[in-house]
Design goal:
The structure is a single chain. This protein is α/β, with parallel strands linked by helices and 395 residues long. Helix content is 39%, strand content 15%. The protein folds into two domains: 178 residues, Glycogen Phosphorylase B (Rossmann fold, 3-Layer(aba) Sandwich), CATH 3.40.50; 174 residues, Rossmann fold, CATH 3.40.50.2000. The strands form two sheets. The protein has a seven-stranded parallel beta sheet with strand order 3-2-1-4-5-6-7. A six-stranded parallel beta sheet has the order 10-9-8-11-12-13, sandwiched between helices. α8 links the parallel β8 and β9. The longest helix is centred in the C-terminal third of the chain and has 22 residues.
Length: 395
Amino acid sequence: MTQTVRDYDDPIQVPTEHNPNEVPKLSIVGVDPELGLAGGETQVLGLTIALAGAGHRAELICDPAGRLWERAIAAGIKCHPLHIRNAIDLAAGVKLRAILKRERYDVVHFHTSRAHSMAPLARSFGSTLIVTRRMDYRPNRVFAPFLFNRAVDGVIAISGGVADSLAAAGVDRQRITVVHSGVDCDRFGPPTGEERADARRALGISDGEVLISSVGALEQRKGHRYLIEAIGALAARGKFKCLIAGQGSIHKILQGEIAVIRSLDRIKLLGRVDDPRELLWASDIFAMPSLKEGLGVAALEAMASALPVIASDVGGLREAVEDGRTGIIVPPANASAITSAIVRLTESAELRLQMGAAARARVVENYSMKTMAARTLALYRDSVRTTREHRGGIA
């Protein structure tokens, strides 16, 4: 069993032992040195904004050349500069220690693997150390027990699948708390008729065409080749298009595969899309054919936008998408199963609408940014209390 924490409907209203009416504030810093703005960085930014909005001192330590720094500064979040080259960057560790010694945070939250590698150097400043694990593949069994069981005070897994992979690598189950990633359900929602028409017009989608979209890094683990193969098998069926947003190392390979199956008119690689909302508004079906996936924020955003999702039976996707109710689960690396799912959904607009509505309701209830922030804050408070008790202090 994974550890659970008390969940408060209002993350601000958490009483202390000394004064039931007191609303204590925490000093929190997130560490994320990545240059891009993938799903993880979206979560970091959303969490930090939510914590700051609740009156906590919420700051970031990140790379000033990265997009997270740019977005956070624009949102009014205080950022401290830190460039981490790799897991053994001792110079970065020294700089991190200097920041933590100066700022004295209650909680230091490491959000990526490179950030987590600095955790052993972040001790001795009285802070509670938390790490989030987003990947569902097993971490290195040699280093995992130390990095997760001893270098930090608490571990967040974004899905049960991620928690299982951690436990398989020797991480103590009692130290793991599952906190699902969150979506801004106000920003990501079903479009109005006018918004949908404008979005489809901008993307060149004609009336009567079914649009299948996918958002994710163009890397082998995302399984886009199987979606492309599935679309190729549907060449003679109806009017539809597939738009894939993202950039990565296999862009040219995927473009070549699209050319081989002669589907250049049906499948397009859009490259990097800073805001996927209009693509989702224009879409009828969302596909996430990943071979591995911690949870799949892109799929959650699609579900919040009232789209049925075709998702691989891997990691957190199998938890988020209810097969036959909010979408269709298919075996990983199986183009024919994706083809069958597409046919089933393209043939019934009513089924798409029913699944889309159920998907939206599921995300609002279980995967909202507000819920994620509240559960994370509850873990922070429990961890801070435990840390202070161990030092002989009072929470």
